[in-house]
Amino acid sequence: MKGLKFRVWDKERECYLDETELAGITPDGKYILYIEEEEISRLEVEDNYIVEYDTGLKDRNGNEIYENDILEDGSGEPLEYWAVRFKDGKFIGSTQGVDEDIFELTDLEIIGNIHESNMKEE
């Protein structure tokens, strides 16, 4: 069985925590276990961090798609852009007030994420 994949956005430093230093997350989701100088620390998620989970999908370039990624859908004209969210127990793509099951979308490419992109969260 594969482990749960996730990444963590540090709101204060405005960057992702180094994946190699993430040891896990507590079952209640309140703490991130972080390895720093060979010691494990518990970082409280509350207002400081955003935990983003892997959808289990990859984009057309083979990159893993995570929550809060911004995707370009090149399957039609005009191009559509989707922000990945977890809603009602599943991952969805959101664009201009429309939600779509992300597993139904095709020809996707990650072009950024809501934290580091000029595109605004809806």
Q: Note the beta-strand portion.
A: over 45%
Structural class: mainly beta
- Give the % helix: under 10%
Q: State Rg.
A: 15 Å
Overview features:
122 residues, mainly beta, 53% strand
Q: What secondary-structure arrangement, pairings included, does this model have?
A:
Layout: E1 6-10, E2 15-16, E3 22-25, E4 31-36, E5 39-44, E6 49-58, E7 64-66, E8 69-73, E9 80-87, E10 90-95, E11 98-101, E12 108-113
Antiparallel strand pairs: 1-2, 1-6, 3-4, 4-5, 6-7, 8-9, 8-12, 9-10, 10-11
Word description of this protein:
The protein is mostly beta strands and 122 residues long. Helix content is 0%, strand content 53%. The chain contains no helices and twelve strands. It has strands at 6-10, 15-16, 22-25, 31-36, 39-44, 49-58, 64-66, 69-73, 80-87, 90-95, 98-101, 108-113. The strands form three sheets. Strands 11-10-9-8-12 form a five-stranded antiparallel sheet, with no helix packed on it. It starts with 5 loop residues before the first strand and ends in a 9-residue tail after the last strand. The mean pLDDT is 88.
